[in-house]
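Re: weekly structure request thread

Next one in the queue (74 aa):
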Amino acid sequence: MGVGVSIFFLTLGAILRFAIEPDVFGTSVHMDRVGLIFMIVGGVGVVLSVVMGSRRGHTSEERLARREINPPEL
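Done, posted below.
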């Protein structure tokens, strides 16, 4: 899940949590709780995307540095 999808979940969760009445679908579905779950999933997704993105970028730089030191033979 990328940063864009995570921000979408955060936004959707905030709308469900704060802008819609909790009992709009009756007593069986609580939209404020669903919104809270979406906000938690979005927050975790943002954190994981940032951590994994920085890790992914670091390995790319290492590979590029190794190629410059030891160029492939033709």
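The chain has one domain: 3-69. Residues 2 and 53 are 9 Å apart (CA to CA).
Next request, please.
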